[in-house]
Amino acid sequence: MRLQHLHLLLSIAETGSLRASADALNVTQPALTKALKQLEQELGTALVVRTPAGVRLAPAGEILAARAATVVREIERAREEVSWHATHGQATVSVGVSPAAALMLAPKAVARFQVRWPKVRVRLMDTLYPTALAQLRSGELDMALGPLPAARPGRDIQARALLDSPQVLAVYAGHPLARSRRLDELRGARWVITGPRKGPGDPAALGTSSWKIDPAQICMECNSFSTLLAVLPQMDAVALMPQRVFEAHGARAGLVALPMRDPLPMTTIHAFFRADGPLSLPAQRLLDAIEAQAQRMRGAGLPGRDGCRGAGPPV
């Protein structure tokens, strides 16, 4: 079986005509018919069905064509990547990552990418929206990973959903509200917001429309989870944070997750990139690796999705 046989089969599937396929592949129709017959003899089965209207793939041909499309696509991708390496050499891809994206997607995706693209330097930057979108527009970032802003990013930015990120409510160990199971029990609590108002770290997003927080209950605003992890253990306050951030750092910081029975919001991590031009080839391949990692995690199920390990809440 040769690569030209795969192109032949894909062309027949697309055109439904031996003559049109011969023209598309720049070969004579007798040569194409001979190649098709050789392939059928090699596989021991008919690959096409001839009809008065033309030809169509037989079941065996459909099976082979599905595999052929992947093979041809991968060969074209390999040629593209080799050509890029030969002419460009070094490159840098800059990615803004939210805390949850940094923990959930970046490590394995970047590791796999660098095995295939060892000459490309990946620059990861801690970002929260709307800062990440401004950095995308200015060209400082090639892409960003994080939650979708409440105000849509605009037509100049493309957003692609990747993975759901559960959240938890955290307090210091020994907090009077540490055993709270219902949002109603938190009505008088003091709160810390992480990120912008109306973002995933804003407690206003919790509960239903009947569950309100007095602005006076917001005692602090943080722009980073590193700051939150440093100050929350010393504060009589509650904070909303990604479950993976809590799992990785919460216990060491002296925090516990409230065992909530009420459902907590699920944030979806997106990939953001500019819509006014294509990504560079290395940036596109890194995005491919990130999407593949998200798909693996969706297929396997998120560890801790039914609650943090140990003290986590059901969500």
TrEMBL record:
Superkingdom classification of source: Bacteria
Pfam families with a match to the protein in the record: HTH_1, LysR_substrate
Keyword Transcription in record: yes
Gene Ontology molecular function: DNA binding; DNA-binding transcription factor activity
InterPro entries assigned: HTH-type_LysR_regulators, LysR_HTH_N, LysR_subst-bd, WH-like_DNA-bd_sf, WH_DNA-bd_sf
Keyword DNA-binding: yes
Keywords of the record: DNA-binding, Transcription, Transcription regulation
GO CC entries: cytosol
Segments forming domain HTH lysR-type: 1-58
Family: Belongs to the LysR transcriptional regulatory family.
Name of this chain's protein: HTH lysR-type domain-containing protein
